[in-house]
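thread: overnight batch results

M.L. [08:02]
morning all. the overnight job finished for the chain we discussed friday. pasting input first so we're all looking at the same thing
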Amino acid sequence: MNLSKFHPSRRAMIRGVLLASGFAPALLVALGRAGANSKVPVIPGVQDVSGDVRINAGPALVGQVVHPGDVVTTGRDGSCVIIIGEHVFLIREGSEIEFYDEYFEEGLDTSVSGRIRVAAGAILSVFAKTDTTISTRFATIGIRGTACYVSVEPERTYACVCYGRGDLGGAEDGLHLESVTTIHHDSPRYIYPASAPQRIEKAPVFNHKDAELRMLEALVNRRPPFDSRINNKIDRGY
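M.L. [08:03]
and the structure it wrote out:
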């Protein structure tokens, strides 16, 4: 990630997260020294591109703004970080994501709300206040301002509400399956198609890190709420 465009305090914070890679015991101390509370303008659009990343079939460029209905795809070596409003998204390799094809804003209680469709791959998201639904072939995840990791598999969807509240449902029949309220990756789930004998079950935490959540939140002047709860102790190392 090219950090030169960021404010020095935010740049130091993000560099600390990237260097620590989520495993250093002193990570939270480093973040505090980096000026985590600095408030600087949020820059919308593509923040970082690695490998093959395309927006509506054209090559993605750093600084490019993602509009409602845009489709972001990543190749086998591709990944990117995107800011929309005050929401931040880390898109993994082999993904196809359609952002806010049913875009709307309602009053003062929501900001950049609507639907995000995950056709393939995986996405780690941190949200400001919103009324967003992440949808896959088999699942819907209703977001009201939280962090969530969603991964599409051939016969199921993986969803981890990393912190905050999420409403989990079936995409094919609209059935409400479960509402979860989490602090620190407490309720990851597998969600299955309507024809499956079991629609939802507990899952492990995998393929997303606390360090990534810290980095994404730092881009919009926030910190994950679990940082204040673990009091600078070693986190779970996810």
